[in-house]
Amino acid sequence: MPRGSLIYLSLGSNLGDRAANLERAIAALPEAGVRVLRRSSLYETEPVDFLAQPWFLNCVVEAETSLPPRHLLDALQGIERAFGSSKLVARGPRLIDLDILFYGASVIRTEEIEIPHPRMDNRRFVLIPLAELAPDLRHPVLGATIAEMISTVQDKSAVRLWQPQGKILYNKNSESTG
Question: How far apart are CA 42 and CA 151, in angstroms?
């Protein structure tokens, strides 16, 4: 795949095996014309706006694509459809949700697509994983870095690093003393 524009995508899932849904979506990106460069950790996040739903797992992917923005959106929506994900309730539960956060330094505002993502500056579930990858990335409209946006965000919803159940990262009692 030829090199293209540097992009950042937000991925989220709150139905079924959330981690597996995210892994499958990331694995589907290259076939859709997106070369994944790096990905953030997974974060468990409290729902925002529509609160009566399960918590999400979210992450951000840094990638490259030679697809024009509108074709990239079509490709991401194709991945969502292939999962059987539907948006029956605005900002409601879904198997997978893929959003374009940034497409290089492009600013695009049409009926079909808005880049940078119009609500990302007030979404901790987007800003925190994005800051893990690119804290100094500057928003082309707001002029602030991702780190600066986190320090002023009004959203106070919970965002915590996610660890699979049963996985021990460090157990003090299992250290060798000898």
Answer: 21
Burial readout 105-119 (b: 16 or more C-beta within 10 A, e: otherwise): eeeeeeeeebbbbee
Residue with tokens 């994900």: 85
CB-based contact 138:18 (threshold 8 Å): no
Cα separation, 33 vs 20, in Å, equals 21
Q: Rounded distance, CA 43 to CA 59, Å?
A: 6
Q: Given this model, what pLDDT does residue 48 score?
A: 87
Summarised one tens digit per residue, pLDDT across range 92-121 is 788 999 999 999 999 999 999 999 999 999
Using pLDDT thresholds of 50, 70 and 90, give the confidence band for residue 163: confident
What's the sign of the alpha-carbon dihedral 61, 67, 68, 72? negative
Q: Structural domains in the chain?
A: 5-174 (3.30.70.560)
Q: Which two tokens stand for residue 61?
A: 């992917």
